[in-house]
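Comment on the following before class.
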Amino acid sequence: VIQGEHPSSCDPRRRRWRRRFVFSPPPIIIVDDGTATGKEEALRQRPFPPLVMWLGGLLALAGLIAFIVWTPGGLLRKIDYVGAAVCHRRLSHSFVTAGGQLPLCQRCTGTFPGALTGVLVYWVGWRRRRSLRFPRWPFFVPLGFFAAFWGLDGLNSATSESQFYPLMAQIAPRPPGIGLLGYAPQPWLRLLTGALMGIAMSTVLVPAFNQSLWADGESTPTLRTWHELALLVAVALGMAALFLGLVAVPFGIVHYALSVYSGLGVLALFMLLGAMMFVLVMQRDGTLTGWGDAWIPLVWGGVFALFVILLMTAVRIWATGTIDGVPGLAWLPAIT
């Protein structure tokens, strides 16, 4: 018997009895297929609080009503306000169809619809909703080239503006209308660089969104082979060619179709970003198992999209007085 210890505590039978009833909390066990027990499983099974669901729906409805009431005109003009939140909308840099000016400039017409097209390819065409991993690092070389191409062509376009003539005369003299890189901006090139940038954006956005929401994901990349990358580039080229062909069609329905798809591109990107932020704030990231579970984050993503668009458009109108071009900032050439 150890000094200071009660004799009964040395009884082996009593020790076994005590060990048998020792309580320990259930651990969280992560297995290879991405499932979990304990706290994570409880989060998956627990629905969002009713207040969160009702508040999200009411705010989305209120934001939609505010947008409809605050923005004048019909559907096409309201889509112009969506485009004005992210684009300068200068007439000289925009496509004009039989129905009028498109809601986005030529470069943004490639970027935002291109990003939406890429998302649809990943989720609908290739069914990569559960793929959680980003592409392997070699794929980021051409994706980085697309982004650089987009930025450099924008720089060349900006430096071809008359506001830069005095500066260009000192740095790199160019004929009027020729940018820093030595060529004249072209509408088709703006559209093409935008489409490639949109594809690159979707390649980063899709796995980031998948990681943020899904609990039933797979440890596979969204973009897996060079053949798939070539298909994405072909899709971007096809979309750009389709837009170039359709802007010359003298029918108003074409203007409606191009405008709606452009506006959806802007809304979709903001909605997906808002849904990702919602699940992170609510600490429910990686706990959903399908689109049926994702409607609440997507509703809150819609609230975020409406808020950002209304705020950015209001600031633009306050600064310039219009959503058509930037007359109040004529000294600042748009980087397009």
The longest strand covers residues 100-105. Residues 1-5, 15-39, 329-336 have pLDDT under 50 and may be disordered. DSSP finds eleven helices and four strands in the chain. The longest helix spans residues 252-281.
